[in-house]
Amino acid sequence: MLKVENLNVRYGAVTAVKDVSLEVSEGEMVCLLGANGSGKTTTMLAIAGALKASGRVTFNGEDITSLSPERVLRKGIAMVPETREVFSDLTVRENLILGGFIHRRNRKKSHHDTEQMLDLFQVLRERQNQQSGTLSGGEQQQLVIARAMMSQPKLLLLDEPSLGLAPAIVHHIYDFINKLRSTGVTILLVEQNANMALKNAERAYVMALGKIAKKGAAAEIAASSDLEALYLGV
């Protein structure tokens, strides 16, 4: 489904991502791991069209390397950034409705899709008329994921969904992520929480200093003796 070949991203004189290649097949959850500054988020942003990159990104056989973020979204790739940005003055329901703007749906279709997301995320149904800025961190994370799903993506890019959340809440977030997988969505996940990501993903890539340092089945990566060393850069 997604194929990234020899991706390079520069910030001025600094090359943040160096010849990164990875693949995600339809129906998979693949995680991209690594320490802070290893290039994970930069790679994700380049795939989403938010950063200029060299190399090649193809999605369902189509070259999307030079497309704008809006056109990438229209192709079926939605990204949930780590910042958990909600429209704080709008209600939960209004946030969800805005998530479907890309398809210019009629009111009946928009209502149907919103109800579908509220069925998947029950806490959002309970808070649907509440201003989103008053939600807890875990509830906001659910909202931004559900809002991204309103565009009906084929591939969901999740950047650090567990960031800053209590362990019990992290487990709930991954329960919701796996619910989304059951609907048929494919997921590429960036995480620092390696243990949680590897428990849920089929395959993993580990980045260090802007490069892919290790790749393989999630269980093999989890059992690897050098995983901690890759994180620490030693």
- Report the count of strand segments: 10
Helical content band: 25-40%
Strand content: 25-35%
Low-confidence regions: none
Distance between the termini: 34 Å
Q: Summarize the main sheet.
A: 6 strands, mixed
Q: What brief labels describe this structure?
A:
234 residues; alpha/beta; 6-stranded mixed sheet; 4-stranded antiparallel sheet; 10 helices; 38% helix; globular
Describe this protein's structure.
With 234 residues, the chain is of the alpha/beta class. It has a single domain (2-232), classed as Rossmann fold (3-Layer(aba) Sandwich). The protein has 10 helices and 10 strands. The chain has helices spanning 40-47, 69-75, 92-99, 107-120, 122-126, 137-149, 167-182, 194-200, 218-222, 227-232, and strands spanning 2-11, 14-24, 29-34, 54-59, 62-63, 77-80, 155-159, 186-191, 203-208, 211-217. Strands 6-7-8-3-9-10 form a 6-stranded mixed beta sheet, sandwiched between helices. The longest helix is centred in the last third of the chain and has 16 residues, at 167-182.
Structure described in brief:
The chain is an alpha/beta fold and 234 residues long.
Q: Topology of this protein?
A:
Blueprint: E1 2-11, E2 14-24, E3 29-34, H1 40-47, E4 54-59, E5 62-63, H2 69-75, E6 77-80, H3 92-99, H4 107-120, H5 122-126, H6 137-149, E7 155-159, H7 167-182, E8 186-191, H8 194-200, E9 203-208, E10 211-217, H9 218-222, H10 227-232
Parallel strand pairs: 3-8, 3-9, 6-7, 7-8
Antiparallel strand pairs: 1-2, 1-4, 4-5, 9-10
Helix pairs in contact: 3-6
